[in-house]
Structure formats: C-alpha cells, structure tokens
Amino acid sequence: xxxxxxxxxxxxxxxxxxxxxxxxxxxxxxxxxxxxxxxxxxxxxxxxxxxxxxxxxxxxxxxxxxxxxxxxxxxxxxxxxxxxxxxxxxxxxxxxxxxxxxxxxxxxxxxxxxxxxxxxxxxxxxxxxxxxxxxxxxxxxxxxxxxxxxxxxxxxxxxxxxxxxxxxxxxxxxxxxxxxxxxxxxxxxxxxxxxxxxxxxxxxxxxxxxxxxxxxxxxxxxxxxxxxxxxxxxxxxxxxxxxxxxxxxxxxxxxxxxxxxxxxxxxxxxxxxxxxxxxxxxxxxxxxxxxxxxxxxxxxxxxxxxxxxxxxxxxxxxxxxxxxxxxxxxxxxxxxxxxxx
Length: 341
Hints:
By secondary structure, this protein is an alpha+beta fold. It is built from eleven helices and twelve strands.
C-alpha cells in the first residue's frame, strides 16, 4: 500500500514520510514556516490523517503494526518540531535583545514626582500646628445621627440648620444626615473620654449649598476642642494666635468679634491681619467657649470643667495662603492647576 506525500511522491511505508517531515521541520526558516510544516504533515488533511483513517480497513495485525509506525512518526516529528521551535524562539529572542540593546550611558528620563493635593498639604500643616501644641487627632463617621450632629451640640429641633435647605438627609425618618460639621466628633469624644480633653477633628463635611466661586456642598474642616479645669477665653485666644502666626506669618495679629453659634457661649469670629484686604483684616474661623448645655448633654460637669472650641475651613485657608480665587479649582482635578502647588 502506498500513501501520497505532500510533494506528490509515493512511499511504501512511513519511514520516508517521517524523514521528509522531520527534515522539513528542521529546515523551517521561522516560527510561521514551522507551523505550516506542522499543518502540512499532521493536520486534518495531512498524510498522517489519511493513514489514521485507513486503519479501519486493516486486519488486527496490520492495524497494530501501523499504530506502532504512526506513534514512531509522531514522536520523531514532535521531537524535531520542538527542537526547531526552541531554536527559532531562542534566535528570535537573541535578535530582539540585540536590536533593543540599552545604552546604559544615556541619562534616565526625569519623571515628575507626585505630591499630595493642595488641600491635603494644607490640612496636614494645620494638624501639625495643633499636634505640636499637644492636641490629639480624632475622627468620626461622615454619615451621622441627628443626636451627635445636632442634639448634643445644643441645636434645637426647630433650628433652621436642621432643615433640608441646609442639611443633606440620608434618612429623614431615622434622623440620619451627612454631617454638616466635624463637631459630632467632639461630641463623641466628650461622651467617651474624661477631661482633660484636647483634640482636633479633621474631615469632610456636607451642606446643601449651590456651587459657586466660594461655596461647595462638600468641603473640609478642622475643628478643635479643649475641655479641662480653668479653661478661659485667654487660652482660646493664645491658641488661635499661635495657629495664625504659624500658618500666615510670625507678625500676624488676630482680633475676636462677637458672634453666635449654638454650641459655644460666648462666641466669636476670628480675624487675622491680612495685607491687601481693604480693611486690613480677614475672617478665618469661628470659635467660642463650649456652652454649658453641651457639656451637660455630653455628661461633663460644667461647674467643674470649662472648654473652648473652634472650626476652620481648610479650603478657605488654602485659598488665602495660595491666592486661589475660585473654590472649584480645588476640586476640578486640573493638572495644570495642581502642579502649581
């Protein structure tokens, strides 16, 4: 019985076909040519496939002999194929490495070094000032209950700040809000720690404000709280004066103007001297002595302890220090703006 080979010749056994297939594999010039050899000699329309199909017409003894020949052919071809493939792959890798050889004398490209966002930089500077004074950093949840966000802070149920025009409610029925200030963290500290207390509370807060050049529904605060025996407005003023001089310059002065906040009594707006402003002063934060009602609600004896609290907008400090006129620039992620700081 004879079988056709790929070039049309005839052979009486598989030996010649095996020799031809292994020789073709060994002579393949590249990986694509090697794959063509594999398909030509072992594919679905190859001599090997025809011989396998013809085994059903053979006697058992002939089928056994033919099976051994086919297995020998497959083994020999696989060995030749794998050896040539490995050699071609190695040659291709060697050529690629030669073509992509690195010149180690060429200076490396300088990539820009990343750094924290301007707000993060300013927030860390502010925290460093207070930590240097002995304050600890306290944090709390951004989704808060009305108890901590309002009730413990002397904000009555009918206070305008509790209306949806000012506050973003997660659940009006359950009185769950996105915190409107970081003061709830102060309440959490006062209900879980005994005085003396000295903490700063950084974090994002949320208000139902329209976006414009000076307002954002999401912004960042750093609030502070001190509760101990004998705390007075003098301690508050000294703390804020030291803070203003560290942030804005050693020659700065502050002044305190009467104001009102539900959780402090008396309350004050704090201005700092600022060149270029028409009045020479610029408001930077609000502060005051902790209202005795707040101390009582949080389980602290107001006859024994007094305290002060303050709240600072990180965006406001960043804008004042770095001449940013539009708060939206701080949130637009414009690399041209961010790389300035």
